[in-house]
Design brief:
Elements: H1 2-12, H2 18-42, H3 50-67, H4 71-82, H5 85-119, H6 131-145, H7 147-150, H8 155-177, H9 183-206, H10 210-220, H11 229-248, H12 250-257, H13 260-265, H14 270-292, H15 298-310, H16 315-339, H17 348-372
Helix pairs in contact: 2-5, 2-16, 3-4, 5-11, 5-14, 5-15, 5-16, 6-8, 6-9, 6-10, 6-14, 8-9, 8-14, 11-14, 15-16, 15-17, 16-17
């Protein structure tokens, strides 16, 4: 009874956080996100002053809104983008890259949280359970065997391929979860599945033509470089419906997190919730993998950080904070990846692992310590 009461208090967030803590935490994450976006669009091999950045962004936004109704405004916007080297760098390189990192970082964090709710374990995530590796395998097969035959493959096609791979591995891990009740063993299974997917990809690369392997090699490093406005449109087209669906499921998620029996007593269709959790999390992680390549540890570490900051497990609070902090985290990691060793650029997964892996290690140690107590 005491454990149930503790869970209810933690879920409701009245004693361990509440609306006030959520408001402060969300506002802090939003300010951090705004600050890192400002830094990301101004810092680089060509520095652009913040005052000049705001001036160009203000003019660009005004012309973009007017361009919806006026062809002349559209021509003015094109002229503004091409008017100088700085404006071209801002609108064609840095702004799309920064926005893509924020959108995908937030989406990956929400995907990780949904998987943690599904498996009822804070260490579950797309990378650890091998789901990202499954998406990488299918996208790799598409790039190897179809890019040379049909030419340029659209980002939407890659998202569809990654979604198929994510869903396949998720269902496989789910099948194992019915037989393996120990979460540590399930994590080992996920890691092994990831190795199998990587082995299949490497096997195909061995017999692929060199020109087909080039595309896969550059993509598999994981990076937001090369992002353009078409990628932003695809990310918004895929991620916004997924995020809206996650928010619409806040009440069923809250009930499901307290146990299937409790959820059924509240009238929740447990099987439907489980299917939707898998579909939404797979869709969000697939979009990230397709557009940016493998990005590790974000889906595990960020939801844990969000819960720690909030001192609550209330889904509406955790999903919102996870998105904001995940957007900040990935944008900051991307800024580090492209500036610390410039002109050499690090893979985004390298930087996220450096900051995310220690959080996961801490979570595992804390979980083991709590079990021993």
């Amino acid at each position: 009874m005491a454990d149930v009461k503790k869970s209810l208090i933690d879920h409701d967030g009245q004693r361990l956080g509440g609306a006030g803590r959520f408001a402060y935490t969300a506002a802090g994450c939003a300010l951090l996100l705004f600050a890192v976006i400002a830094a990301s669009v101004s810092i680089g091999s060509v520095s652009i002053g913040l005052s000049k950045v705001w001036s160009m962004l203000g003019k660009g936004l005004s012309l973009f809104v007017r361009s919806v109704f006026s062809k002349a405004a559209s021509e003015e916007l094109s002229a503004l983008i091409s008017s100088s080297g700085e404006s071209s760098i801002l609108f064609r390189i840095r702004l799309p890259r920064t926005l893509l990192a924020a959108i995908l970082g937030g989406s990956l964090s929400v995907s990780g949280y949904l998987l943690q709710v599904f498996f009822r374990n804070p260490i579950a995530g797309p990378f650890v359970l091998g789901i990202s590796s499954g998406a990488k395998m299918v996208v790799g097969l598409v790039l190897i065997f179809f890019a040379g035959r049909i030419g340029l493959i659209s980002s939407l096609t890659l998202v569809a391929a990654a979604f198929g791979g994510s869903l396949l591995i998720t269902l496989l891990v789910l099948l194992f979860s019915q037989r393996v009740r120990n979460m540590s063993m399930l994590l080992v299974v996920g890691i092994m599945v990831g190795y199998i997917c990587s082995a299949v990809t490497e096997f195909c690369i061995t017999f692929a033509a060199d020109h087909d392997v080039v595309n896969l090699t550059s993509w598999s490093m994981g990076s937001f470089s090369g992002a353009d406005w078409a990628d932003i449109r695809i990310a918004l087209l895929v991620c916004i419906p997924g995020l809206i669906a996650a928010f619409l499921m806040i009440k069923p998620i809250g009930a499901y997190a307290l146990g299937e029996g409790y959820a059924r007593s509240m009238g929740v269709r447990v099987k439907t919730v489980r299917v939707l959790l898998i579909l939404i999390s797979s869709l969000l992680s697939a979009c990230v993998t397709a557009l940016a390549g493998p990005v590790s540890f974000v889906g595990i570490a960020v939801p844990h950080i969000a819960r720690t900051l909030l001192r609550s497990s209330r889904p509406s609070y955790v999903i919102s904070t996870s998105f904001l902090f995940g957007a900040f985290f990935c944008t900051a990691c991307d800024l580090i990846a492209r500036t610390v060793f410039a002109p050499t650029e690090l893979a985004i997964g390298t930087v996220t692992s450096v900051f995310g892996a220690p959080v996961v290690i801490y979570m595992m140690i804390s979980s083991r310590r709590n079990r021993e107590v």
